């Protein structure tokens, strides 16, 4: 009952922030075209198949179980080396009490290379994406600050653009641990993913729903999933912010966490 009350409070806060964002003035945009361009830029940064340069700074809080919490300080971004080649980065510092006492350490460094190309199947504009991600464990598995494995993760996806306002991304990624340490277990997982993004010019922003599944081939094909929600707004054409709410084991079946909240700042360049 206590956990349910906490989740209700989380969503009350999210709803309040959504209302505030909807009623806020449209920042420095001078006309509808500028508002649309700013909203599109913010939305594209949340789309893994979009052509955009950005860097995010964010804080996330995770309720893992009734006695365990984790706070994550993260930076994530992307840079277009070429209109068809995108490089992304992510680095996390975590503070957690998963072992009964609080520990702080860098958790993981993730680097990804994506090859992007245009298409138009069924008359719908799309971006095909093919790439690979490297996940370098930086923490300590015994302290709860690391996974205990270094992984390589090839991926393939399609970014669909059925309308100017809407984007849908279908993606699948395979995670394989080529090295384990500190007592970490071997990883062989397939991760299907479905993302919906809508541009919101009325608040010079965007809404994103990101469903992430996971099939654990080392655990009898066990399936788990989370749903990540994000609402953002751009204060200027290059600077914005967003709030996040993640649904874990409180709603879906997952071993990752019960629920999570986050706040981020976005820089477009």
List the helices and strands and how they pair.
Layout: H1 2-23, H2 32-45, E1 54-65, E2 68-82, E3 85-96, E4 103-119, E5 125-137, E6 149-161, E7 166-180, E8 188-200, E9 205-216, E10 222-234, E11 239-247, E12 259-268
Antiparallel strand pairs: 1-2, 1-12, 2-3, 3-4, 4-5, 5-6, 6-7, 7-8, 8-9, 9-10, 10-11, 11-12
Describe this structure in words.
A hairpin with a 5-residue loop joins strand 4 (103-119) and strand 5. It contains 2 helices and 12 strands. The protein is globular, with a radius of gyration of 19 Å. The chain has helices at 2-23, 32-45, and strands at residues 54-65, 68-82, 85-96, 103-119, 125-137, 149-161, 166-180, 188-200, 205-216, 222-234, 239-247, 259-268. By secondary structure, the chain is mostly beta strands. Strands 1-2-3-4-5-6-7-8-9-10-11-12 form a 12-stranded antiparallel beta barrel. Helix content is 13%, strand content 57%.
Instruction: Report, as a whole number of angstroms, the end-to-end distance.
Output: 46 Å
How many strand elements?
A: 12
Helix share bin: 10-25%
Major beta sheet summary = 12 strands, antiparallel, barrel
What percent of residues are in strands? over 45%
Question: What topology, given as strand order, has the largest sheet?
Answer: 1-2-3-4-5-6-7-8-9-10-11-12
Mean pLDDT: 89
Number of alpha- plus pi-helical segments? 2
Rg over CA atoms: 19 Å
3D shape: globular
Helix and strand element order? HHEEEEEEEEEEEE
- Spans where pLDDT lies below 50 across 5 or more residues: 1-6
Main features:
mainly beta, 12 strands, single chain, 13% helix, twelve-stranded antiparallel barrel, disordered N terminus, 269 residues, 57% strand
């Amino acid at each position: 009952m206590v956990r349910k009350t906490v989740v209700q409070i989380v969503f009350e806060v999210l709803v309040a922030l959504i209302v505030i964002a909807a009623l806020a003035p449209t920042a420095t945009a001078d006309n509808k075209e500028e508002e649309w361009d700013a909203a599109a830029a913010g939305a594209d940064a949340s789309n893994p198949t979009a052509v955009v340069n950005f860097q995010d700074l964010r804080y996330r809080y995770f309720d893992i179980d009734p006695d365990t919490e984790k706070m994550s300080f993260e930076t994530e971004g992307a840079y277009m080396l070429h209109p068809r080649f995108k490089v992304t980065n992510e680095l996390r510092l975590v503070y957690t009490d998963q072992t009964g006492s609080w520990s702080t350490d860098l958790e993981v460094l993730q680097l990804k290379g994506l090859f992007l190309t245009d298409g138009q199947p069924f008359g719908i504009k799309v971006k095909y994406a093919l790439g690979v991600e490297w996940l370098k464990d930086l923490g300590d598995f015994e302290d709860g600050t690391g996974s205990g494995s270094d992984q390589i993760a090839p991926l393939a996806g399609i970014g669909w653009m059925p309308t100017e306002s809407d984007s849908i991304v279908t993606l699948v990624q395979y995670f394989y641990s080529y090295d384990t340490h500190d007592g970490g277990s071997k990883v062989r997982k397939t991760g299907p993913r479905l993302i919906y993004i809508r541009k919101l010019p009325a608040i010079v922003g965007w809404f994103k729903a990101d469903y992430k599944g996971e099939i654990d081939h080392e655990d009898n094909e066990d399936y788990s999933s989370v749903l990540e929600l994000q609402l953002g707004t751009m204060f200027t054409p290059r600077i914005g912010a967003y709030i996040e709410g993640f649904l874990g084991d409180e709603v879906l079946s997952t071993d990752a966490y019960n629920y999570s909240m986050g706040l981020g700042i976005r820089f477009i360049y």
